[in-house]
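Action item from last week, closing it out:
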Amino acid sequence: MANPLMYENVWLQQQHFEQAEANYYRQLAGTSAAPLKPAAASPQTTEGGGSSLKNEIAQTRQQIQNALKRPAQNPSSGISPQILKRLEELEQENKDLRKATADIICRIKKLEERVGDPVKTGAGDSSGAAEEKVDDKKDDDEEDDDVDMFGDDDDEEVEALRKKRLEEYAAKKAKKPAVIAKSSVILDVKPWDDETDMQEMEKLVRTIKKDGLVWGASKLVDLAYGIKKLQIMCVVEDEKVSVEDLREDIEKFEDLVQSVDVAAFNKI
């Protein structure tokens, strides 16, 4: 069976809910006032129920305003003791710092008064130093007068010193080992056909001996149609061995060698 209250269009418990809401907001505001008692039924409330609601709202607003005014009257009531203690310590430190600064300023002033004007105190010392500089300058001028810069003896000494320096430089340069420029060369030696004896070709190539020529590793590389070429590496000194002359010397073995190409050329 359905509850008959489901079909009611009138909120009969409105006053209780409003009273509970007012009590909730009073607790949030921190007021310690006793909860408001529900107003007695009066001819005004029976007519519309709006007068009691207005009174409760007005009382709630008044209590909220009173709660907001309390911290302003006693600002330290809402501050924790730790913060108050820290503020007192900071104030004391500030006082100590000001006192120390004042002491330092006072000491500096006393030192300035004791030392006095540095310009006046140093006047005597500066005059004495100036006299010493003048005397030293006179002595230097006298020594310079004794030296004849344009004399024949000085010219001979300068010339002898210059020759000595040149000889020392030449001897030092001769002792220094000269840098030998070398190059790494890879040669491709191509045969006439696939019937060429490649081992014999390599032996003939290595028979070439020159000052500044060192033969290195070699290998056979496939060329085409079963024909292989000899790829051999050598190191040459640029001033002693010419790569073009070396190619011509290898091509002289014309029975086995068709041509010689430079595959790679790198400076060492």
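Closing note: The CA atoms of residues 140 and 146 lie 10 Å apart.
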